[in-house]
Amino acid sequence: MSSAVLLPVYRVAARGLAPFSGMFLWRRGRRGKEDVNRIGERRGRASLPRPEGRLAWLHGASVGEGLALLPLVSRLTAKGFHVLVTTGTVTSARILAQRLPEGASHQFSPLDAPAFIERFLDHWRPDLFVLAESEIWPNTICAVHARKIPITLVNARLSPRSFERWRRLPGFISTLLGKIDLCLAQSQDDAARLLQLGAPRVDAIGDLKYDVDAPPADPARLDELAAEIGPRPIWIAASTHPGEEAIAFAAHKTLAKRLPNLLTILAPRHPHRGPEIAAQAAEAGLEAALRSRKEPIRPSTQVYVGDTIGELGLFYRLSSVIFMGKSLAGQGGQNPIEPAKLGSAILHGPHIGNFIDVYGALDSRGGAIKVADADALARQLESLFTDPTLLRRTAEESRRVVGELGGATDKIMQALEHYIAHMIVTQPQAF
After folding, report:
1. How far apart are CA 29 and CA 247, in angstroms?
2. Interval 79-132: pLDDT, tens
3. Where does 298-355 have alpha helices with state H?
4. Structure pTM?
């Protein structure tokens, strides 16, 4: 079958599967992957009224993409738009609810079925559609394009592996990319790959993630935790994935021989794993406390499990030494920009393919340090704890690197000015 005819086949298949979406979403809800009170949003049924005036629809897949859009949200609301941000995960919805500014709201993204997309568009009637990274949903793009709504792909990235997959479907991907008015890529390599696949208008402008503010923290909670911890040496293992907790426990036990008052804070990428991680700590002979159960940090506590949502900013502010997860036992790494903005020395494993540019910049400038296993992790932690000059230099360089790499928001807004100016001319009454 020619790849050029796959798009109509996909559209027919999605239309046929739509009636079964209720069962699909219900099962996901039972596993905690959907908000059961907002499942209607996934089928295009809005749970909020559309505000008056112009509306910009911004979409990101999950937490990282949604947070990366925050600088754009602020700039668009300042221009008089109401901003609707959609994502597809429960965690992203909870975090964005805490961080979206006035004039912006969140909904879950509708499934990519024609009926759901049309229902969504009928209600929200966006004037501008901004997609983040690689969220190329065929029915969504076709429906928005048919309504002559400008589509911009921002923070666009396309890995070599994804590029090779799309090259096998040239007619399919070129048709979709041809409906996108503007692709603004993270790097020159991403831009080149998008051009080869058929995107008509592409520019490389950098990564929005560098422009995102450091995550907030409640001052009262921060003071409370700092008082419980006292002067103890402390490090954070952030966004850990299965297998990395055991590595953190091993590093803790090695380092505790030199620093007996050491406290390790584990903030798992998926907070529901908290009880499981506490049980693993006990099996390793370590005393653990769970934040979700409001268990205090006692002098005897060795591991504190931060199994809550939206509190990474709190944990990052408790220590200047942060290990970023999904890089030793996982694949792809986690975003180090937020702790770097707070002036943290970053430790990470070798598996950082999703953030290779930022880790490359941090490593080359001495703002981050790569470790291979639990022993190397313990050695580097000891070096940072026992050498204040090294810790200060690493943390300062970390902050400096991410500060120098910002600026993508300004470039995106400049690129969007053409569409915004057109709206002002054709719909002046809203401004």
Report:
1. 32
2. 999 999 999 999 999 999 999 999 999 999 999 999 999 999 999 999 999 999
3. 312-316, 337-341
4. 0.87
**pLDDT recorded at residue 431:** 37
Q: What is the pLDDT of residues 292-302, one digit of tens each?
A: 999 999 999 99
Please give the pLDDT value at position 159.
86
Tally: H helices and E strands in the chain: 20, 14
Contact 209, 41 (CB under 8 A): no
pLDDT tens figures, 346-357: 999 999 988 988
Read off the pLDDT of residues 6-50 as tens digits, 9 standing for 90 and up.
888 898 899 999 999 999 999 999 998 999 999 999 999 999 999
How many CB atoms sit inside 10 A of residue 375's CB? 13
C-alpha 38: how far from its chain's center? 21
Task: Return the closest-CA partner of residue 374 out of 284, 213, 245.
Answer: 245
CA distances to 22, 114, 117, 123 from 42, rounded to whole Å, are 10, 12, 9, 14
Sign of the Cα torsion 234, 236, 241, 243 reads negative
Helix/strand/coil for 239: strand
Beta bridge partners of 346: 322, 368
What is the SS3 assignment for 182?
strand
400: its two tokens: 């400096």
**What is the residue whose two structure tokens read 């990366």?**
68
The Cα 105–Cα 84 span in angstroms is: 5
Q: Label the pairing between strands 263-268 and 303-305.
A: parallel
Q: Kindly state the tokens that stand for 416.
A: 């969007």
HSE-CB at 198 with a 13 A cutoff on CA atoms is 15
- DSSP reduced 3-state for 332: coil
Give me the active site residues, please.
65
Structure tokens at 356: 């290779």
Residue 138 neighbours by CB distance under 10 Å? 19
> Roughly how many angstroms between the first and final C-alpha of the chain, as a whole number?
49
Beta bridge partners of 202: 183
Q: Which residues of 327-344 are buried (b: 16+ CB within 10 A; e: fewer)?
A: bbbbeebbbbbbbbbbbb
Instruction: For residues 204 and 192, give the distance between their C-alpha atoms in angstroms, rounded to a whole number.
Output: 9
305 with 289: CB under 8 angstroms? yes
Q: How far is CA 78 from the centre of its chain?
A: 23
